[in-house]
Amino acid sequence: MPANSSVFRGAGVGAVAARTRIRASAAAGLLVATVSGCSMPGPSHRAPSSSVAPTSATASVPPQNALSQAETPSDAGLAESSSDAGLDASRRRQRAVVMERGTLFDPAEDDEAVERLRTAEIVGIERGRGGRSVAFRVTFGDGTRGYFKPEQTFSGTHWFAEIAAFHLDRLLGLNRTAPSTGRTLPWASLEPLLATDAHADEVIVPADGMVRGVMIAWIDERLVPIEPPEDWDRALRIEDWEGPYPFVAPGLLRRAIEARARAGDGGLDGGVDAALDGGLDPGLEGGLDPVDASEETNDAAAWDVEARAAELSTLIVFDFLTHNADRWGGGYTNVRTRGEAGPIVYLDNAAGFSRRRARLSTLDVRLAYVQRFERGFVRRLRRLDVEDLRARLATDPLAPILEDEQLEHLAQRRDAVLTHVDALTDALGAERVLPW
Which CATH number fits domain 107-221: 1.10.132, 3.30.200, 1.10.260, 3.30.450? Predict the structure, then answer.
């Protein structure tokens, strides 16, 4: 199916949205707290602090301390618990299908991969193709490759966000983000490749001529943009949704949200309820097509994308955690799989971990849309301690990777996700909210 067909509500990528009405549920509360920027859940979701690993730049990457020794990422999603006992055979089969897709990267190979990315001899560099930011494809002496994103003034690319996303991915047992590490390269080796590039002056070059950035492991397999069936998003919902369609480019979604705020005679800080319940067409290209969860297609078991829906649910939450709004739109360029039917890869996380704010309205709407989650992922998220992430990031040669405020913002977003999931579970039941 073409990327701009009816999955975008029948009118191309401009069809973002229409009348907004969110049921009196946890999702509405999430958005009010989100846009006001002043509500924080209590400490009940915080994992207990753990000891901080050594911070030497040469230390190996700490283990996945979000998982116990006996719990691997695969069996974490299938682990039996007292709450699993009530799942019927159909839900158990769905859970098994979810895990059959596997993951893309083996954490046991991370240390070797990261060391190569940091220190291997570089025998070739060429300008990266595609994308707005400046990047370079690198070939190492052993024939393997990497992708270098330098520090640059372009606000949509944060080299440090790729490193933080990699380590967060491993702490959560997802293993879908390519190994990444900080590295410096001489500007003298990069500048000739940008001789005719309009964005060459965006690269930040220190006085010593060594440009810092992130080196990302190259994925050799073909990465294929997803082509979801029409109405794939219904599998993420339990109740009806008549809000702005969230899985479009952030600029389109942001304009729709702002238009609703204006319609409610309030700004994003003061008119959230009215904006989300205002019923005004924001005037963007496209028409109205709210999701009706009562239709047969909402029963995800009736169509064969259950595993993919579970993957996308977790991806949406991961982007919320990393603060990455730049995932959707543009023909699913940043939502890709390893081969035609492989697992989804968490590609291009550089827009995340902004230093300016903890929350974004676009990401809040996307999270509010999701009502079904992977049980094992939520369990691991409850155990996530930002101090574990701090310890892993401290091993990077360009540390510190994130500032204290950015780590605190992550903790706030983690708590917001868990508050959202808990409220849904209380209202709709664990079997419906945590089916996978």
Answer: 3.30.200
